[in-house]
Recover the amino acids of this structure.
């Protein structure tokens, strides 16, 4: 059986230990831990890195937004397109008289000056017409005063003489302006028909670029604005030009009329394609070392009123 006196003895011993005075002698020393800078730095590094990382992130986002706004502004203020081509005016030459070619002193792709001889139609039949008309004029002058209608006959003979001389001049076809010969597919001896095209000339006086801009750019393009032009044939050469004008109309297949009713093609309402309008840019200060060629691909940037 347990001793009933045991709990009392334990409580008495606990009371005695509580009332026992502390041992004599100096008080125990208190240990203090001093943290050095090397110990604090590692604790602060994660916080500093987080601050720097967040700051850089904010700066990158703001920089990207600023760059996007700047690029968007340039995109509209300085419209640019690579859907552009060099153009020049072309004329087809046809003789005023018919006959075989007896002279052809030019070659294909040759540069010709204004007034330079291009080809000659056989003038002999027309020279004989001049002689015949001249004889008629002389006869009318000899008969002066013998017939009442002599003045009318003389004027008719003089008109025929003028036409005959004009036909002889028409046999010699010359360049109407400085140009390049193109599509020359004839030779001496070929028969030339009156009014039928024999060759073509590319007008070298004025070169221009037809640049197709989307319609949302047209509000930023005005006649007279300065333009920078780069050609794929001379990628490192910059050409200058001026906006001559913006096209006023486009051909649209869905605007055709069928039996008096407009034909409108179906389209998706959520897809809107911008139309492209031609903008004509006159090229300035042509460089003979970099000649223009019709049909060359160009990249056009409108710089505004500079």
């Amino acid at each position: 059986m347990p001793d009933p006196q045991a709990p009392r003895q334990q409580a008495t011993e606990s009371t005695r230990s509580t009332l026992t005075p502390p041992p004599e002698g100096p008080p125990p020393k208190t240990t203090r831990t001093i943290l050095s800078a090397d110990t604090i730095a590692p604790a602060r590094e994660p916080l500093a890195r987080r601050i720097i990382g967040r700051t850089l992130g904010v700066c990158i986002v703001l920089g990207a937004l600023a760059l996007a706004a700047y690029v968007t502004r340039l995109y509209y203020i300085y419209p640019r397109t690579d859907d552009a081509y060099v153009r020049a005016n072309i004329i087809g030459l046809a003789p005023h008289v018919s006959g075989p070619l007896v002279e052809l002193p030019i070659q294909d792709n040759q540069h010709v000056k204004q007034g330079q001889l291009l080809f000659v139609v056989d003038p002999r039949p027309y020279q004989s017409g001049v002689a015949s008309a001249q004889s008629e004029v002389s006869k009318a002058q000899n008969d002066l005063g013998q017939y009442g209608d002599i003045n009318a006959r003389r004027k008719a003979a003089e008109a025929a003489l003028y036409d005959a001389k004009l036909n002889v001049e028409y046999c010699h076809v010359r360049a109407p302006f400085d140009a390049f010969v193109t599509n020359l597919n004839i030779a001496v001896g070929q028969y030339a028909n009156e009014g039928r095209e024999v060759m073509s000339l590319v007008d070298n006086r004025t070169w221009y670029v037809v640049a197709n801009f989307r319609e949302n750019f047209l509000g930023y393009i005005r006649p007279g604005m300065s333009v920078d032009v780069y050609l794929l044939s001379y990628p490192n050469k910059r050409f200058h030009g001026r906006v001559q004008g913006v096209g006023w109309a486009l051909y649209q297949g869905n605007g055709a009329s069928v039996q008096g009713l407009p034909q409108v093609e179906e389209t998706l309402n959520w897809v809107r394609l911008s139309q492209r309008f031609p903008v004509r840019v006159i090229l300035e200060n042509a460089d003979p070392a970099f000649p223009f060629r019709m049909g060359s691909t160009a990249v056009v940037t409108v710089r505004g009123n500079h």
